[in-house]
Structures are given as C-alpha cells and as structure tokens.
Amino acid sequence: AYVSKLLRQCGDSVEMVVQQAPRDMLSNPCYTPDLMNGAKDKDHTSLPPVVLDWETLPPLEQKRQQAIQDLIRSEDHYLTDLKFGIERYLLPLKKKDFIAPEKHEKMFNNIKEVSDITNKVLKSLTISRVPLINTSPNLPYYIYSIGEVYRENSAELIQQYEEYLNGRKAAHQEFNRLHNVGEFMTFLQEPPALPDLCNILQQPREHIGSLPCLLQSVLSATPLHHPDQAHLGHVIQVLSALSRTSPSKKKSEARKMADIQERLIFSSSVKPFPIKEGDRVLVHEGSLYKLDKKKKHKVYAMLFTDLLLLTKEVGQHLKVVQDPMFLSQIMIQDFNCDDGTEFHITVVATLPAEGDKVIHGDTYVLRGKTADSKEIWKKVIGDRASGVDRLTQKPKDPNIYNLPCLPTPIPDPDHSTSEPEVDGMGGPIWDGVSKGNAAKNDKKPGKKDCQPGTPNVEQCRRWQESLENVLHDPKGEAHFLRFLKKEFCSENFEFWKDVKQLKKKKPEGEKLKKDVKIIYDEYIGDSASKQINVNGKLKVAIRDTIDEPYIEMFDDAQKFVIQLMRDGPYRRFIDEDNLQEILKGHG
Questions:
Q1: What number is the average pLDDT over the span 462-482?
Q2: Closest listed residue to residue 533, CA positions, set 484, 580, 465
C-alpha cells in the first residue's frame, strides 16, 4: 500500500534504493533496512522511519547489542578524553616558550593521530545504526556488525599504537623533566585540571590493553554464521599481541619485572619486598581511585600473576602505599554507586608478607575511571582470585562473610520456610510443581510462579560464599532461577540444569540421541529458542557429536555457562539489597 501511494505521488518514474536485509533479521517483521539517511540527502521522497523493537530480538542478540553498546561507550569516553587533552594541553603548550618544539613533539608523541583513528573507527561503527524502541536509554540503537570496521582499520590501529608504544618512554622522560619547570607546573594547575596530563599521556596504553576484552564480549555473544565471527577473532588476536608487548622493546618478561623493581619505592608503613620473584609476571596495569574516609586518592594498580599492588606515581618512581594483596586470599565484590565505577576488594585470609598474620575482612574501596574500566579490572582480578570465582574452592574462614545489613526473616504466611518435597529426580517441588519442569509450567496460562520459600540469614551468608553453595541449596537454586528470569537471562541456568538432569537419567541409545537433540535445538542450534552464550569452538564441537552423542558431550559448555553466571548475574544476586528482599519474602 505504501509503495502504491509512493508511485502515485511520484508520477511516471521513481528512483528506488534496494538493500538486502542482514541474514539474522530476515525473519523479523519489524526490521527496516537503514538506507534512508542517504535518500533524504538526495531529495528522495521521504520514507517511514527506520526502527527496531528491542523486545523482538532473541536473547542472545540482546546480549550482543549490550556488549556492542559497552564497547562504543568505552571508545566514546576514551575519545572524549583524548580530545580534551589535545585542546587543554597539546595545542596551548605548542605556543609556550618554556618547551621547545622537538620536546613538545616527543612528549605528546602521536596522540593526535591516535585520536584521529579512534574517531574514524567510532564514526564507522555508528554510521549504520538503527533506532530501537521499547528499550532502555543505555541501548538506543541496533548495530548489525562491527567486525568489518575494526578489521578494515586494524592496520592503521596497529601502526599508530606501535608508534605510541615506541615513544612512550621518551614521552615519560620529557614529562618528568618538565616537572622542574615552574611555568609548566603553573600551567598544569590552571582550570580545568582534570583529566590531568599524566592521565592523558598514558590513556592509549590502557585503552589498547582493554579493547581486546571488550571485543571478546561481543564475540562471545555472536552467532556462528555471523560475519563478525571471523573479523573479530582476527582483530582480537592482533590487538592482544600488541597490548602485551611494546614492539620497540621486545623485552623478556624477566626484564620487565626488573624494570618494575627498579621503579618501586616503599612508604614507611610497608616492608620492602622483591617484586621480581619466581615466575611472577605483570598481567594488567592502570589507574584506579582508592576511597579512604570519603577522600579519593589516585593510585596506579599493577596486577601480577599472584598479587595486586597499589602504588602512587612519584616522578618516575612507583611508591608502594600498602602491603600487596595476594590473589589467593581476596574476594572481589561489585558495589552499586551512581556511576557504576565502584568495587570492593576484601582480604580474607593469611598474608605471608606479614608473618602469617590473619586479616579478616579488611576491605578496600576502589573505583575505575569509567564503568567499563571497572568491569575490566573485576574480570582480570576475578579470573585469578581463588576467593572469587573458583567454584570448587572455599574461603578458609566462612565467618568473614558477614551481612550486617541483613535483617531477621519476617514471617510470611504465604511463604513456607520448610524444606521442599523432592521429586523422582531429586529435584525440589514447589507448590506441586517439579522444579525440573518449572520452566515449562510457569509459562502456561493460569499457572502461578513456583514459590521457593523464604531462606534464613545463614543460608544467605552461605550463598555469598560461592555460586556452588547457591546451586547445592534447593532454595538458593530456586531463588537464583527466579532472579535470572527477572533479568531475562535464565537460559544459561536452564541449560546447566537440563544437562544436569540428563546426566542423572543416563539415557542410552536412541533415548540419548533424542534427549541430546532436544537440548541442542533448545540451547545451542542457530534457531534455538533459548540460545546460550558459548563460543564458536564449543558450538562446533557439540554440533559435530550430535549424530554420535555421549553423556558428557555438554560438559565444556556447562562449565562455560557456569563461569558466565559467576562473573555476571551471581554477583548481582548476592548483592545485599537483593538478599534483603528475599529474606522479607519479596525475592
């Protein structure tokens, strides 16, 4: 009808633009190709607005779009800081007499060119975006592909960041030399003073280190047939290699550690220790803020294979401001603050550096520069801290996990506090509904959500210790599932649960083939209704064994989704506010 009206308006002829819809969107009736932006520039007849309905996107695609938006926000914040640095520091200092042109060029290196390539990439990422409706303000647009943009610009990215890394040492030396020039120090104190020049000069190194992590988040939510699979895999590989080593230095890990040791100095409250010891290597570094008595102090954090070290930059030295935190004896927790940048690290066991002194619950409040940088720090620390996300390891002293804000449970006649009955498979039954079938039954008209019952405070404390304690407690498992459904991300849990039930039943022959095919079609296949977020290699491995299945074929995928739940929704589930609601019977 619309085309007929258009032809009537345009008379005998009309210029038409045809574009093939992306493969993923062919079945989506709400999809309209993003081709009208150019049409208006050419005085083409106005066509309907291009929109997509968030609620029509599959769950995996929603996760992918969230990861893409996180990436774009990170690039945008980074570019904003670089542009600020150019306008506030680079251009004005070019006109100052106290810094020679060659010294100015040495200090700022190729920051301008790094900013230009970042701007180019960001513009390319957003050129084909489609507005979303029925979504949050943080997800205003749909973007089909990002991999081709990064791959097309990867050569220039590598060139500019290699040049930056090559000149980083000289830039640092020049910056330190200027600290002895009074006019330079006066210039730095002029408003606006934040972000400071030191922060601007080291931002490219921090960004190129975090970029592969952000791209990996997108890749892990990308379907196998999507073109981003190949493009992003290549880009992540080359950027990861670049971020690990400065091309000009080509130093061994041992030499890097020796350089760090030379730069370290210790405050009077910290006993000196050798950082270059055994197989210890530097894993991640960057700026953080440490909150102490409501004051915010900038620190330079260095994560090694076995410990986290907080230092303060003093000229070319790094002053160690507190004892090292050994990763085997810490836990990391998210914290809800206005800008989403805060997280807490708690020392939970013996610190060998203090003569086997046991410290219970010493908590350090840290903030990233952005919410994205906080998530990266949480991820890299969490991957190595046994107190956080090693499912089979428990803290040495469970008493350190105290919940001072959790109240005594409020009696509620509508919520039973007794242990549930058990079905034939060993799963709990809530209100007559077998938990193994809860996912199906609670979707039928007229069926109420199963009520898992109110736990006690001690149960909630155990849940905070590990995801394992949640999954081994019937009430914990049921409340966790309800929480995941509220966040529209229950598919990973449901997959884990279905695989667990498959192992309990131990089917054989044709029955095994049938059960495996059901799980594959529901969670793994390209048309899966509850497609889970596993990587391409796992999907291929599972698909290749469908015709000759075995009972353990989903084990790796099961471990993968456990890790995803542990890194994401589990952290939010054990938040004190959520546990308080559960104790009140509102969870």
A1: 88
A2: 484
Q: Which residues of 303-341 are buried (b: 16+ CB within 10 A; e: fewer)?
A: bbebbbbbbbeeeeebbbbebbbbbbbbbbbbeeeeebb
CA-based nearest residue to 24, from 214, 222, 216: 222
| Beta partners for residue 313, in sequence order | 318
Among the ranges 55-64, 321-330, 443-452, which has the highest mean pLDDT value?
A: 55-64
Q: Give the DSSP H/E element, type plus range, for residue 346.
A: strand 342-347
Please provide residue 156's backbone torsions phi and psi, each rounded to the nearest 5 degrees.
Answer: -70, -35
Cis status of the peptide bond prior to 101, with omega within 30 of 0: no
Residues 6+ apart with CB under 8 A from 359: 347, 348, 349, 350, 351
Question: Which residues, including other chains, have CB under 8 Å from residue 423's CB and lie 6 or more apart?
Answer: 429, 434, 435, 436
Report the alpha-carbon distance of residue 196 to residue 185 in Å, rounded.
Answer: 12
Contact by Cβ (8 Å): 455, 475: yes
Averaged pLDDT, 298-310: 89
Residue 272 CB partners (closer than 8 Å, separation 6+)? 266
Confidence at residue 357, expressed as pLDDT on a 0 to 100 scale: 41
Separation between Cα atoms, residue 452 and residue 430, nearest integer Å = 6
For 347-400, write each residue's pLDDT tens digit: 765 444 444 444 445 788 888 888 777 888 887 787 666 433 332 233 333 332
Return the structure tokens found at 47. 């066509």
Taking the C-alpha atoms of residue 258 and residue 488, their distance in angstroms, rounded to an integer, is 48
**Within 13 Å, how many C-alpha atoms sit on residue 28's CB side?**
18
- Please, what is the Cα angle at 69 between 334 and 572, to 5 degrees? 20
- CB of 583 closer than 8 Å to CB of 415: no
Distance of alpha carbon 95 from alpha carbon 295, whole angstroms: 36
Q: Is 270 left (phi over 0), alpha (psi -120 to 50) or beta?
A: beta
Structure tokens at 231: 């493009």
Using the predicted structure, report yes or no on whether residue 212 has a pLDDT greater than 80.
yes
529-559 residue pLDDT tens:
888 877 777 788 888 888 889 988 998 888 8
Q: Smallest Cα–Cα separation from 201: which of 169, 224, 177?
A: 169
Q: With 50 as the cut, is the pLDDT of residue 579 above it?
A: yes
Radius of gyration for the alpha carbons in the chain, expressed in angstroms and rounded: 27
575: region left, alpha or beta (phi > 0 left; psi from -120 to 50 alpha) = beta
Is residue 73 a contact partner of residue 189, using CB atoms and an 8 Å limit? Answer: no
Q: What is the mean pLDDT of the chain?
A: 75
Using CA of residue 88, residue 90, residue 91, residue 96, what is the dihedral sign? positive
